[in-house]
Amino acid sequence: MRKLRITELNRLTPEEFKVTGKIEVVIILDNVRSLHNVGSVFRTADAFCIKSICLCGITATPPHNEIHKTALGAEDTVSWKYFEKTEDAVNELINHDYRIIGIEQVENSIQLNHFSFNASEKYAIIFGNEVKGVQQAVINMCNDCIEIPQFGTKHSLNVSVSAGVVLWEMAKKIHPKLNA
C-alpha cells in the first residue's frame, strides 16, 4: 500500500466545485459559537457537495482566520448566507419546500440509523449550540428530529463531529456518486 499524493486524488478545483451538482441539503448552524466548529462544518459540506450553509445568530461568518484554520478554503467554495434569527432561515427554507430536520435529543426522536433519507427530497439539517443545542423554538418548526445513537457515558457529540456523522449517513443514501 502506498499513500496517494494530493495530485493523485482527482479533486475538483474551486471553480469546478462551484458549478458541480450539489445534493439538495442545506445545513443550518443555530448559534454555534466555536469558529473551529464552523470551519469544520464548511469543510465537511464541501466534501459531500452540500448545497449551502445558513449561519445563524452568534455563529461567525467568513472571512475569519479561525474559521479558515479548519475550513482550509471550503469557506470560499461552499455557498453560505447569514441570518440574525435561526427561525428566519427555517422559514425561508420551508417556503422552498425543504424538509426541516433538527439534530437533537427530543421526545420521539428518530435514531439516525432508522431515518430514511430520500434522494428526491430537499433537506435542511439543523445543528445547534455546543452547550444548549438547537433552540426549542427552532425544534418546534422541525418536521423531524434525528438523534445519533450513543452508547458511552457522554450524552452528546461535538457539533462538527455530529455534522460529519449525519452528513455521511445522508450521503451514503442520497449522493449520486455513492449510489451509481
Concise structural overview:
The protein contains 7 helices and 7 strands.
Please tag this protein with its features.
single chain, 180 residues, alpha/beta, Alpha/beta knot, 7-stranded parallel sheet, 21% strand, transferase
Distance between the termini: 27 Å
**Share of β-strand residues:** 15-25%
Low-confidence stretches: none
Please tell me the total number of domains: 1
CATH topology category name:
Alpha/beta knot
CATH superfamily: SPOUT methyltransferase, trefoil knot domain
Radius of gyration: 16 Å
CATH architecture: 3-Layer(aba) Sandwich
Separate helix tally: 7
At the first level of CATH, the class is Alpha Beta
> Given the helix and strand composition, which structural class is it?
alpha/beta
Order of strands across the widest beta sheet?
3-2-1-6-4-7-5
Spatial shape:
globular
Share of residues in helices: 25-40%
The major sheet is characterized as:
7 strands, parallel
How many runs of DSSP E, i.e. beta strands?
7
Mean pLDDT, all residues: 96
Write the H/E string, N to C. HEHEHHEHEEEHEH
Describe how the helices and strands are arranged.
Blueprint: H1 14-19, E1 23-30, H2 35-47, E2 50-56, H3 65-71, H4 74-77, E3 79-83, H5 86-94, E4 99-103, E5 110-111, E6 123-128, H6 136-139, E7 144-147, H7 159-174
Parallel strand pairs: 1-2, 1-6, 2-3, 4-6, 4-7, 5-7
Structural write-up:
The protein has helices at 14-19, 35-47, 65-71, 74-77, 86-94, 136-139, 159-174, and strands at residues 23-30, 50-56, 79-83, 99-103, 110-111, 123-128, 144-147. By secondary structure, it is of the alpha/beta class. It has a single domain (21-148, 156-174), classed as 3-Layer(aba) Sandwich (Alpha/beta knot), CATH 3.40.1280. A 7-stranded parallel beta sheet has the order 3-2-1-6-4-7-5, with helices on both faces. α2 links the parallel β1 and β2 (50-56). It is globular, with a radius of gyration of 16 Å. The two termini are 27 Å apart. The mean pLDDT is 96. Keywords: Methyltransferase, Transferase.
